[in-house]
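Saturday, quiet lab. Running sequence design on the structure tokens for the scaffold JK sent over.
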């Protein structure tokens, strides 16, 4: 069925670990390429290459050992992905990262399809902070390399800009009153068809995902629109693999795309236990061109992220039959670092 027997994965965090586990189940070997010697995914992969993402020799060596390449985080230099693409297929397509790695390009792409994002303005130099009053209070975000709220600043008044070094590129987004946040996980296969998981409701604390649950408590109209928008985005990108679209819902029930993640996503961890097929297995099936399986939700579920030193409260704990604890096996419990998660099924 498949001619892809060895899957190369760039990035070695928990998403990589879970991709390796899904691949193993399907009889596919994995090689992790990561710049961190302590990368947790090496515990689950068949082999591990530790090198910088710009190390051309190592990258080419890696590409020669695998049949197809994917990645578990989006901030890999696009040039690196394009070099690999000369040797082996890379899914999702590297040009997609060029758009999504940059918040301004990403929002522009989404709006051009007639899909709403919150109002924003590019802040590429000091001059751009004129006439931004209607976006205040707002959130200033670096255009690249932000995650888990890193590189973000609340701007309540123009005075707040004084503390910030505006040398790099930012966008200023209007801060909206969130009623809810949801995400859509979907997997688009190589024949252009997609499978879509049910909307997931997400609660963030300090801009980091805290809990995700299914079913989400939203009306059918919003649920359908969020699914339709996500499929439209995936089709337009020519996406192959699993991706996530994060949405805001405001007090007037308006739906906005927050951001797209071109990879498996933290909010989809509950698919491992609550569905017949996880977001990770769907991703591996898609990039390795295996048979498509429709996801079926088998149970309601809640997933809680375990952050920082809180992990030590779980390591020796006894769990009930409906509780599934995942320890990411990270060497150091730094504050704000995702260390594990607990999924509880409501059977
Ligand atoms: P990251 O790329 O770090 O995940 P996000 O842009 O998704 O950053 O922001 C993280 C969280 O911060 C969001 O999930 C949301 O809870 C909050 N947030 C971000 N932008 C806005 C906004 N414009 N209005 C209200 N809340 C926001
Ligand atoms: Mg986010």
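Result came back. Writing it out in full:
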């Amino acid at each position: 069925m498949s001619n892809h027997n060895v899957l190369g994965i760039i990035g070695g965090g928990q998403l990589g670990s879970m991709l390796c586990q899904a691949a193993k189940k399907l009889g596919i070997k994995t090689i992790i390429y990561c710049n961190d010697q302590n990368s947790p995914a090496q515990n689950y992969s068949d082999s591990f290459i530790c090198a910088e993402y710009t190390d051309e020799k190592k990258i080419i060596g890696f590409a020669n050992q695998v049949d197809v390449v994917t990645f578990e985080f989006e901030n890999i230099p696009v040039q690196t992905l394009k070099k690999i693409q000369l040797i082996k297929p890379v899914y999702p397509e590297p040009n997609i990262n060029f758009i999504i790695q940059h918040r301004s390009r990403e929002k522009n792409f989404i709006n051009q399809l007639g899909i709403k994002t919150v109002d924003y303005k590019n802040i590429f130099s000091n001059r751009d902070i004129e006439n931004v009053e209607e976006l205040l209070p707002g959130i200033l975000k670096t255009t690249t390399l932000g995650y888990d709220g890193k590189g973000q600043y609340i701007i309540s008044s123009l005075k707040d800009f004084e503390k910030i070094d505006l040398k790099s590129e930012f966008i200023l987004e209007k801060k909206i009153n969130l009623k809810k946040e949801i995400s859509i996980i979907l997997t688009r296969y190589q024949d252009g068809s997609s499978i879509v998981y049910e909307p997931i409701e997400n609660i963030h604390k300090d801009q980091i995902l805290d809990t995700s649950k299914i079913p989400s408590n939203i009306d059918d109209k919003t649920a359908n629109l969020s699914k339709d928008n996500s499929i439209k985005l995936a089709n337009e990108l020519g996406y192959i693999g699993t991706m996530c679209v994060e949405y805001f819902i405001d007090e007037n029930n308006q739906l906005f795309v927050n951001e797209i993640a071109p990879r498996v996503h933290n909010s989809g961890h509950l698919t491992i236990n609550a569905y017949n097929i996880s977001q990770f297995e769907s991703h591996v099936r898609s990039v390795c061109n295996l048979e498509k399986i429709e996801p079926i939700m088998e149970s309601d579920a809640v997933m809680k992220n375990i952050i920082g030193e809180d992990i030590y409260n779980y390591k020796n704990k006894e769990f009930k039959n409906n509780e599934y604890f995942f320890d990411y096996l990270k060497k150091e419990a730094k504050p704000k670092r995702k260390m594990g998660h607990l999924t509880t099924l409501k059977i």
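Notes for JK: The helical segments are 14-25, 56-65, 78-85, 94-100, 103-112, 220-237, 271-274, 279-287. The domain at 178-345 is CATH 3.30.470.20 (D-amino Acid Aminotransferase; Chain A, domain 1). Ask whether to fix the surface positions before the next round.
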